[in-house]
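**User:** Once you have settled down, spend some time on the protein underneath, comparing sequence with structure tokens, and judge whether sequence predicts the tokens.
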Amino acid sequence: MKLFRPMLIALALAAACATTTAHAQRITTPPDGDNQKASVMQGIGLVEVRVDYSSPDVHGPQGEDRKGHIWGELVPYGLSDLGFNDCKECPWRAGANENTVFSVTHDVTIEGQPLKAGRYGLHMIPGKDEWTIIFSRNAHSWGSYFYDPSEDALRVKVKPVKSEYREWLTYGFTNRMPDHATCVLQWEEMAIPFEIKVPDIAELYVAQINRELEGGGGFRWNDLNQAAQYCLQNKVHPELALAWADKAVNMPFVGQPNATTLGTLCQAQFAAGKQAEGLATLDRMLAQSGQAPGPLHMFGRQLQMAGNKDAAMRVYQANARMNAGQWPVAIGLARGHDMMGDTKKALAFAKVALAQAPDEPNRKNVQTYVTTLEKKLAGK
């Protein structure tokens, strides 16, 4: 069985060659058991997760079909006596040949348990109903023959699940989200999933942004503005958002007081509880000429969703003055009056917006909103 066969022949040959000449060189031959090497990498935001492994197949080296004989037989349940290096109770190497290696560039959690950034030998203890996944600080050994439980960095328990047939043992990632992903081992008709999560991923981004602003980014108003927007959108570090937004507007030789930067500064001031300063900056922003109706509408929506009703209404009304008759001015006024409690005016503007809708998706959305306002006005 190629997954557990020790390299005794290879070691013996290596020793014999060493005795014949001091200048013997190692030659390149196919991997033991024809278990091809493979690797997979997944980004989770700034974090990179990688699994390097050797991939056995269900059919053995001589073509024998081992389907139905993998789990509990070729890969025994529980700990095993591997017959080498006095390893009497050793886990499965979670692949073939050398250590399967799990690498991660930042601290993460595995199934809710913390794991530091680094390289780990990945081992597993299979079971019919529950598996134990082991992350060993020994990431350089051959298989599990040198496994030592004292080198464990983490153990977690997971449940195996039924999966579609896989001829070759494969690692992959599912449920790939901005702050977490699930790593899955699949082979034959079994899958072993475990969740990897990045705690406080926004903090990683803020730290990276801060480093970048200490370089060339700190001399570009658009980079400073984008940095402030990241904090605002993710509701973290309002003090940094305000400092970066202020620099984007006012920093000598760098700042640009345009509609974009003034809008961000206004939002940052509101987020920092500086209402009067925010309204003053908003008026300054709305005094900028040539603003397109779409971006101005979206800015009003951002203010509205952040709970700044008065500021949002100012934006919708300013958009009507600057861009009368253009889409989406009317729907902005509808939402503004609805927000302020004037359902009758909101419905009137919503009907205007319905006639102006530029495409079918927008028309359907506005029609739904019109219907909602009509029911609201009718007291339903």
Summary: The first helix runs from residue 8 to 20. The domain at 201-377 is CATH 1.25.40.10 (Serine Threonine Protein Phosphatase 5, Tetratricopeptide repeat). The beta strands are 36-44, 47-55, 100-104, 108-110, 113-115, 118-125, 131-136, 152-158, 161-174, 180-197.
